[in-house]
């Protein structure tokens, strides 16, 4: 049965909304496949505004991987802003995909990628607009299977009532496996209904179906245990790991939007995973082991990607890009190749200790020399030992001295406030570090226009990290500490005016903390916030702390718990954590030891260069670290693209 | 820079919602994909030489937008047009290209011809509104700008406004019995600029004309205004004439 496009109805609404271009689709490299020729259909959502969601690599990769398969189609959908939401409700226009403007409710799967928990209310808006019942239990055989993925899905319990299943880890192979299961089930005539499809997915061991698990609680509110209620469903659900990145060179043809978006560049993921072992970093813990893309694989993706997009900047993405074993050759090779084309390179995440000036010079050779950004994360040597961010102040000063000596004028430093064991003194030392940076800069450059910006936000403990047991600092204490730091910086007569200070207040962090380490009882809070109009919680102009607290106060007392219980409470070794049955590969006992090491201010090395310290991932997931060097180089390309003057560019 | 080329392009269908900024980014990327040998501006952060003229507002379609690019090597304008058109999304189509052999291009864009489709409005009602609008010496309208509400005359800039026969329209895919008045508007480019929606505000002010659904607006042409016939003529014609003369002996194209 052909599915009608909602575009004619949507089109009449577009003159009345802000930035209508974000809703019309038609991006370069987007795909529209024939509905009836496909047996399995996915709608993929990044639950935030188009300008944030479109550049998301995860969605782009899955979109392409699925659309490349015969008989499978994937389309994208994003959160609509409240101005359009209101009109869609008035005129009964459902949540639509931007590709063919098909209603989301007509697809087999509705996949959502959660980079952050702050997208949960947007999921509910989309479900409701799509005409899909908010709760999994109320859905029928013709409703899409709602799938959560992304980093936040490593603890899907707060949204357990709203999703049908969650997939943790890399999605490339997982979506294909799920597609195959759905194809067979549909071809058989959908035996056993929706429940049977979910059961078949759950039995793979890699798809978590919340309804197949019962949570039992203790009298004090803690979880007693989580038990499967069906046979054949695993006790623990495993994460997915793609082992050879060169076999998955996606996105091959990145989407190029007409609307302005937050990242306008050709992004290539140069490796996945990180073993630096920063204890606060959930991404570094749940994406292990390190798997590098080869230098030649990177070169090929950049080449094809630039050709198909026309972007003028290449972003080399990863959790710590300067750690790629051949980063110097990659940067030099790319800068050499694209000198003529004025293509800039960027390395979004660079560690202080991996930075070197030759690399920085290569990166800025074809483009602008803007600011340099480093993330020491903690102000004192002591707190950096606690968080295992092994960067000494001497390293930092030496690095910035080189940078200022080579013409940079601006350095940005990122920090966190509210780290475990932190005192006022740890945070106030940030001011001292910044003044040393300025002093050194003035000394080596001989100039006074040196600037250093300190950017600081509240720390939120995350599941599957050594800090998953840690108490979160209350928002009042966070704010008080940040004010002291601000006063210290502003009070400095000699250097204060050269130091920029940016900070985020502690309130959003508390909501993020509630959602990050929450359990199924948090679902009521999310629903109450959504019903009271909560939307776009990642946006300062929409986020309402009071709405969240009021909603929590209404729903949580029935369970004998409150917001503090989830956020500022320290957990003990014995406590069953809501996400224990989701297996990231990390051994819980190793995480606990690492937590104890943190409290003892003991550091752990990076296992890429030192022996294994038994975090558990490689044996548990049957994976291993994959790094170079390959010893290969990027060769200059002979460009044969047709050009307007009929000749190849010189 | 060794050559300048002037291009006419369109904003059609759903891509009429492209803002001018969005178009600029898309066009500059298309230049890269098509490997057009662009001339770059000098300075710390070099930009390809592109100048845009008088873009239609976001949400209005156009058959007649113009821009000029500067090239570092000589190109055949026709081949350039083909390559760029292939490289641009469908709807943002590059439909004409001529080598720029004259100056003062922007000064030639003196008027625009617009088509306004008023779905749900009967021809008679529209004709009456047009009559009243044209009969007025001046029609005060207001527009919300970034600096607040601005009041100005929408009548003086209007060179002509008429109801045309809906039967001739192509692409009107709605049911035939649905009333739909089509206006043809020629407006001079004066300061402050009078846009089609200002004329619609004027029709509302003089004759209470209130279309039930958003009016779809298309720029059909912009260029010099032939005062005798009241038509907007091709602004690229002087370049075409100059090129014809210039290309006869030893052309590079």
Describe this structure in words.
The complex is a heterodimer of chains A (650) and B (253). Chain A has 650 residues and is of the alpha/beta class. Among the domains of chain A are: 7-238, Cobalamin-binding domain (Rossmann fold, 3-Layer(aba) Sandwich); 265-367 and 587-650, 2-Layer Sandwich (Transcription Regulator spoIIAA). Chain A is built from 21 helices and 18 strands. Chain A has helices at 7-11, 50-53, 57-68, 82-91, 120-130, 172-187, 193-203, 282-286, 295-309, 327-337, 357-364, 381-387, 393-405, 424-445, 475-490, 507-516, 523-531, 545-555, 563-567, 588-599, 617-621; strands at 40-49, 72-79, 109-113, 145-149, 165-166, 213-217, 223-228, 237-238, 266-269, 271-272, 291-292, 313-317, 344-346, 372-377, 410-417, 451-458, 499-503, 582-583. The termini of chain A are far apart. Chain B folds into two domains: 3-107, 2-Layer Sandwich (Alpha-Beta Plaits), CATH 3.30.70.580; 111-223, Alpha-Beta Plaits. The longest helix of chain B is centred in the first third of the chain and has 14 residues, at 20-33. The radius of gyration of chain B is 20 Å and the shape is elongated. Chain B starts with a strand and ends in a 7-residue tail after the last helix. By secondary structure, chain B is of the alpha+beta class. Chain B has helices spanning 20-33, 77-87, 105-108, 123-135, 196-207, 237-246; strands at residues 3-11, 50-53, 61-71, 94-99, 111-119, 140-145, 148-153, 158-164, 180-188, 216-223, 225-226, 231-232. In chain B, strand 11 and strand 12 (231-232) form a beta hairpin. In chain B, helix 4 (123-135) crosses helix 5 (196-207). The chains are: A alpha/beta (650), B alpha+beta (253). Chain A binds chain B through residues 7, 11-12, 14-16, 19-21, 23-28, 256, 258-260, 264, 306-312, 341-342, 368, 639, 641-647, 649, and chain B through 14-15, 17-19, 21-23, 25-26, 28-37, 40, 44-46, 58-59, 71, 73-76, 79-80, 83-84, 87, 89-91, 213-214. Chain A: InterPro entries: CHP03960_rSAM, Elp3/MiaA/NifB-like_rSAM, Radical_SAM_N2, rSAM, rSAM_horseshoe, rSAM_sf. Chain A: It comes from Streptomyces tardus. Chain A: Pfam families: Radical_SAM, Radical_SAM_N2.
């Amino acid at each position: 049965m052909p599915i009608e496009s909602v575009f004619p109805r949507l089109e009449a609404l577009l003159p009345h909304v802000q930035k209508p271009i974000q809703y019309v689709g038609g991006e370069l490299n987007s795909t529209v496949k024939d509905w009836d020729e496909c047996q399995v259909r996915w709608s993929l959502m990044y639950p935030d505004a188009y300008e944030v969601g479109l550049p998301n690599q995860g969605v782009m990769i899955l979109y392409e991987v699925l659309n490349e398969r015969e008989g499978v189609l994937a389309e994208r959908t994003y959160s609509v802003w409240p101005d359009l939401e209101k009109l869609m409700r008035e005129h009964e226009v459902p949540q639509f995909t931007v590709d063919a403007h098909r209603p989301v409710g007509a697809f087999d799967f509705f996949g959502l990628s959660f980079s952050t928990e702050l997208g949960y209310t947007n999921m509910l808006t989309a479900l409701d607009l799509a005409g899909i019942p908010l709760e999994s239990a109320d859905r029928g055989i013709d409703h899409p299977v709602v799938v959560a993925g992304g980093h936040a899905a490593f603890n899907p319990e707060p949204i357990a009532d709203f999703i049908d299943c969650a997939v943790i880890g890399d999605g490339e192979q997982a979506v294909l496996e799920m597609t195959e299961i759905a194809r067979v089930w549909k071809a058989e005539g959908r035996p056993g209904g929706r429940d049977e499809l979910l059961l078949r997915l759950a039995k793979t061991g890699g798809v978590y179906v919340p309804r197949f698990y019962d949570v039992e609680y203790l009298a004090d509110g803690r979880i007693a245990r989580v038990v499967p209620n069906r046979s054949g469903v695993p006790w623990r659900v495993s994460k997915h790991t793609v082992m050879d990145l060169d076999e998955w060179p996606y996105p091959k043809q990145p989407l190029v939007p007409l609307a302005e978006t937050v990242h306008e560049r050709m992004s290539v993921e140069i490796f996945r995973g990180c073993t630096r072992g920063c204890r606060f970093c959930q991404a570094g813990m749940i994406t292990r082991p390190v798997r590098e893309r080869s230098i030649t694989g990177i070169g090929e993706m950049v080449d094809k990607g630039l050709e198909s997009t026309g972007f003028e900047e290449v972003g080399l993405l990863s959790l710590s890009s300067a750690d790629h074993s051949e980063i110097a050759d990659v940067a030099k090779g790319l800068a050499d190749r694209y000198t003529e084309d004025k293509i800039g390179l960027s390395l979004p995440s660079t560690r202080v200790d991996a930075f070197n000036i030759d690399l920085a010079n290569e990166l800025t050779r074809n483009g602008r020399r803007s600011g340099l950004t480093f993330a020491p994360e903690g102000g004192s040597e002591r707190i950096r030992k606690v968080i295992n961010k092994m960067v000494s102040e001497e390293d930092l000063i030496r690095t910035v001295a080189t940078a200022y000596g080579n013409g940079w004028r601006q350095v940005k430093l990122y920090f966190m406030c509210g780290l475990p064991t932190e005192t006022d003194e740890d945070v106030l030392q940030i001011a001292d570090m910044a003044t040393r940076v300025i002093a050194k800069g003035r000394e080596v450059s001989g100039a006074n226009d040196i600037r250093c910006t300190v950017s600081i936000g509240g720390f939120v403990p995350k599941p599957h990290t050594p800090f998953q047991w840690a108490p979160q600092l209350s928002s009042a204490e966070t704010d008080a500490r940040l004010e002291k730091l601000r006063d210290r910086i502003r009070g400095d007569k000699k250097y204060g005016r050269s130091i920029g200070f940016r900070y985020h207040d502690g309130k959003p962090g508390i909501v993020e903390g509630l959602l990050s380490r929450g359990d199924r009882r948090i679902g009521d809070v999310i629903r109450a916030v959504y019903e009271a109009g909560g939307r776009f919680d990642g946006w300062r102009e929409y986020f309402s702390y009071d709405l969240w607290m009021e909603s929590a106060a209404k729903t949580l007392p029935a369970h004998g718990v409150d917001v503090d219980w989830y956020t500022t409470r320290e957990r003990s070794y014995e406590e069953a954590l809501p996400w224990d049955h989701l297996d990231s590969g990390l051994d819980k006992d190793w995480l606990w030891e690492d937590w104890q090491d943190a409290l003892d201010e003991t550091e752990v090395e990076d296992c890429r260069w030192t022996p294994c310290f038994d975090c558990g991932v490689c044996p548990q997931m049957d994976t291993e670290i994959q790094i170079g060097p390959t010893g290969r180089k990027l060769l200059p390309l002979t460009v044969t693209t047709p050009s307007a003057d009929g000749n190849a560019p010189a | 820079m060794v050559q300048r080329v002037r291009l006419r392009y369109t904003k059609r269908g759903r891509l009429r919602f492209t803002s001018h900024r969005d178009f600029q980014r898309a066009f500059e990327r298309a230049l890269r994909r098509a490997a057009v040998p662009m001339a770059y501006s000098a300075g710390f952060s070099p930009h390809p030489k592109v100048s845009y003229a008088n873009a239609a507002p976001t949400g209005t379609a156009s058959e007649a937008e113009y821009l000029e690019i500067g090239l570092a090597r000589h190109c055949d304008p026709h081949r350039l047009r083909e390559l760029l058109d292939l490289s641009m999304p469908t709807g943002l189509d590059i439909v004409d290209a001529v080598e720029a052999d004259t100056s003062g291009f922007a000064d030639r864009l003196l008027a625009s011809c617009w088509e306004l489709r008023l779905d749900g409005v009967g021809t008679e009602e529209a004709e009456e509104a047009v009559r009243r609008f044209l009969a007025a010496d001046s029609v005060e309208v207001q527009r919300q700008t970034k600096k607040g509400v601005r009041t100005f005359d929408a009548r003086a800039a209007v060179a002509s406004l008429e109801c045309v026969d809906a039967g001739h329209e192509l692409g009107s895919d709605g049911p035939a019995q649905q009333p739909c008045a089509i206006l043809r508007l020629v407006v001079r480019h004066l300061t402050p600029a009078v846009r089609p929606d200002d004329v619609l505000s004027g029709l509302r002010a003089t004759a209470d004309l209130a279309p039930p659904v958003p009016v779809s607006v298309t720029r059909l042409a912009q260029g010099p205004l032939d005062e005798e016939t009241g038509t907007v003529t091709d602004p690229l014609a002087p370049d075409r004439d100059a090129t014809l003369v210039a290309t006869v002996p030893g052309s590079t194209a």
